Amino acid sequence: MTKVFEFFFDFASPYTFIAHKKIIQFEKEKTINVKYKPVLLGGLLKLAGIKANADIPIKAKYMIRDCKISAEKNNIVFKFNNYFPILTLNLMRCVIVAERKGFDRNFINKVFEAIWIDGLNLNDSSILEKLLKNLEINPKVFLTDASDQKIKDDLKKRTEEAFSKGVFGTPSFIVNNKLFWGQDRLEFAISEANK
C-alpha cells in the first residue's frame, strides 16, 4: 500500500518544477499518492538563515546549467526563465485559493509551465491576469480572494509548519516522518512510501 507523501513546493524554484514534472511521470507509471504543500521559499530561507541560489552568483550560474542537464536527463521540456527570479508570494497565495476551489493541481501545473516552459514574466500582473483568463478564471475575483488576510495568514502558517518539520528549501518531500530534499531525492521518497 502506497503511503501519502508530502511535496513542499514553490514556483520560484526551477528544481521544484523538475520535481513536479517527475511526479507527473511517476503518477502515470506507478501508484503514488502525493500531497502538494504550498510554501513560500523566501520565507523558508529566511527562517533557516540561508541565502537563495539567485543571490550567490557562482551558484546561480551553475543552477542554470544544472537544471538544463536534469531536465534533459528526465525528458522534461524546460527553459530557464529570463525573468528569474520570479516573485511568487501572490502566486503561492493563489494556490491556496485554487485548492479551496478544487482545481489546484491543474492550476499548479499551468503556472509551473508558464514560468519554466513558456518563460513568461509572471512578475507582470497583466501577464498573470492573461494566464488566469486562459484558465477560465476571473482574475479580479481570484486575485482579490488571494489578497484576503486569511489566505495570507494560511500561507505564512503553512511555511512555518513546514520549517518546524525540518523543511528548509524546495522541493522537499516528507514520508514516514523522513525528510528528503532536492528533485534528485524524489525517487528516495517514493521508495520510502512503498515500504
Give me the CATH fold name: Glutaredoxin
Q: How many individual helices?
A: 9
Please write the string of helix (H) and strand (E) elements.
Answer: EHEHHHHHHHEEH
Strand order of the largest sheet: 2-1-3-4
Classification by helices and strands: alpha+beta
Task: List low-confidence stretches.
Answer: none
Which sheet architecture does the biggest sheet show? 4 strands, mixed
How many distinct domains? Answer: 1
Record field, number of beta strands: 4
CATH architectural grouping:
3-Layer(aba) Sandwich
Radius of gyration: 16 Å
Name a few traits of the molecule:
Glutaredoxin; 195 residues; globular; 9 helices
Explain what this protein looks like in three dimensions.
It is a single chain. By secondary structure, the chain is of the alpha+beta class. It has one domain: Glutaredoxin (3-Layer(aba) Sandwich). It contains 9 helices and 4 strands, in the order βαβαααααααββα. Strands 2-1-3-4 form a 4-stranded mixed β-sheet, with helices on both faces. The longest helix has 17 residues. It is globular and about 45 Å long. It starts with a strand and ends with a helix.
What are the SSEs and their pairings?
Elements: E1 4-9, H1 14-29, E2 33-38, H2 41-48, H3 57-73, H4 89-101, H5 104-116, H6 125-134, H7 139-146, H8 149-164, E3 172-175, E4 178-181, H9 186-193
Parallel strand pairs: 1-2
Antiparallel strand pairs: 1-3, 3-4
